[in-house]
Amino acid sequence: MVSVKMKVQTAFHGELFRSGKTYEVDENTAKRWESSNIAEIITQEQETPDKQ
Questions:
Q1: Long-range CB contacts (< 8 A, 24+ apart) of 27-31?
Q2: Residue 5 forms beta bridges with which residues?
Q3: What is the distance between the alpha carbons of residues 52 and 50, in angstroms, rounded to a whole number?
């Protein structure tokens, strides 16, 4: 599973995925959405900001 941050609102498997929120989807869907500019794949570095 891959974390994605939605750029637009969409329905996926009967659920409403809202723009700006982060969701877990399978890797193939995440890559497809990123190439279609629907969502941004979130990496571990982006999820947890460095604390100094």
A1: 27/1, 27/2, 30/2, 30/4
A2: 22, 40
A3: 6
pTM: 0.79
Q: DSSP letters along 1-52, please?
A: -EEEEESS-EEETTEEEPTT-EEEE-HHHHHHHHHTTSEEEEPHHHHS----
pLDDT at 34: 97
The mean per-residue pLDDT over the stretch 15-21 comes to 97
pLDDT score of 49 more than 80: no
